[in-house]
Design a protein that fits this description.
Bound molecules: pyridoxal-5'-phosphate
CATH architecture of the largest domain: 3-Layer(aba) Sandwich
Structural class: alpha/beta
CATH superfamily of the largest domain: Type I PLP-dependent aspartate aminotransferase-like (Major domain)
Order of helices and strands: HHEHEHEHEHEEEEEHHHEEHEHHEH
Number of strands: 13
Length: 387
């Protein structure tokens, strides 16, 4: 029986051949001009002013959270994280000694529940929120931004699952102070491993460039370099090993960037193909079983289909039937961070009602650009057997 995977050929033979040809020109391999080209093209594609290429979406989250802390933009230690998120949305909050405040999800687009978000903002007065867009579904950006403005909360976006999603005609990646993306193998486009941060804020951009590479000034503009060197009395020679902020090394390479540039050329096509698949899934499932209710004013760059069953027993029998039929599936991302071992160990269990539903009854099934209608028919038949 044909295997249906979550992803197929994101980096195909043609991409590998192009990479081999490029390598035959013996280019620079570490971060260099190709990284800048990729960053410029990515920023253009998102519509943002700046983009910073790093080695994973998780590193992008790490830098964004640390950048806020380092820049003194957090009014206190409290940091809001949706309980339905990825482990590395929560992890940096803990790693940098901030206090996580979990927010429940909604059961329409799986992003934050707005009522719960407002309650948490009112009661806890957190400094920041990292908003996660789940599986390409857009959150209600106007409502989230209104709440962030009302309660003076800095907004970050995690779009690692939502590259290409737009809200009222504007791509995600332009709403928060900074936004993360992942170019891991299974995501919208791939550099094997990789991540990107977009921002429209030049101070954040300059800080991210330094934090990405040891804290030095090498990636800054010549003008910014001379300002810093003058301020600290550093010669051009000493500047090679001078460090201005406590940095990391989460760079990627020009080799990854070369793959990324090629991927950007075909990403619109693959997003469109996945959208057509999404609509076909919707036609087959909507009204018969829970299906996302995406916002009218959004475009969904979906990369996997969330499925929520009526109870846990039905979920497990669906998982079993999919496995028997050689079809890949996964839990619906973390389900609920408040019930994950590393959270529980520190703070005890935090069960939130909608996340409980997702955690106990949710999975996701494949939606990749090479999926055929007959594959979707096969998957939907199995899903509907378990309603
Ligand atoms: C919402 C979200 N954020 C962050 C990440 C981390 O991305 P990466 O795997 O590139 O570290 C993922 C990974 O799947 C994710 O789903």
């Amino acid at each position: 029986m044909k295997r249906i995977d979550l992803i197929q050929d994101t980096i195909n033979n043609n991409d590998v051949d192009q990479l081999v040809n490029w390598l035959k020109g013996y280019p620079r391999l570490t971060k260099g001009p190709m990284t800048l080209e990729f960053e410029n093209k990515f920023a253009n594609w998102i519509g943002s002013e700046y983009a910073v290429f790093v080695n994973s979406g998780s590193s992008a989250n790490l830098l964004m959270v640390y950048a806020l802390k380092h820049a003194g933009l957090l009014k206190n230690n409290k940091f809001c994280v949706p309980s339905l998120c990825w482990a590395t949305d929560l992890a940096p909050v803990l790693q940098f000694d901030l206090e996580p405040v979990l927010v429940d999800c909604n059961l329409e687009n799986l992003s934050v529940d707005l009522e719960h978000l407002e309650k948490v903002f009112k009661e806890e007065s957190p400094a920041a929120l990292i908003l996660v867009s789940v599986l390409g579904l857009s959150p209600d950006m106007d409502a989230v931004i209104d709440l962030c403005e009302k309660y003076e909360v800095v907004l970050l976006e995690d779009n690692c699952e939502s590259q290409g999603t737009s809200y009222k005609g504007k791509r995600l990646g332009n709403f928060g102070l900074m936004s993360s993306f992942s170019t891991y193998f299974g995501h919208t486009m791939s550099t094997i491993e990789g991540g990107m941060i977009t921002t429209n804020d030049s101070d954040m951009y300059n800080l991210l460039l330094q934090l990405r590479s040891h804290g030095w000034d090498r990636d800054l503009s010549p003008q910014r370099q001379s300002e810093l060197r003058e301020e600290w009395g550093i010669s051009d020679f000493s500047a090679l090993y001078s460090f201005y902020v406590p940095g990391f090394n989460v760079r990627s390479t020009d080799l990854q960037a070369f793959i990324g540039v090629g991927q950007l050329d075909k990403v619109d096509h693959s997003i469109q193909k996945r959208y057509e698949n999404y609509l076909y899934y919707k036609e087959k499932l909507s009204g018969k079983i829970w299906f996302p209710n995406e916002l009218q004013e959004s475009f969904t760059a979906n990369f996997a289909i969330p499925v929520i069953l009526d109870d846990e027993g039905k979920k497990m029998s669906l998982v079993k039937e999919l496995e028997e039929n050689n079809i890949a599936c996964r839990p619906l991302i973390s389900g609920s961070m408040g019930t994950q071992p590393f959270y529980k160990k520190l703070y005890g269990e935090n069960k939130l009602p909608n996340c409980e539903v997702v955690d106990s009854r949710g999975i996701y099934v494949p939606n990749h650009p090479l999926l055929q209608q007959e594959d979707i028919d096969r998957i939907c038949e199995i899903i509907l057997n378990n309603v």
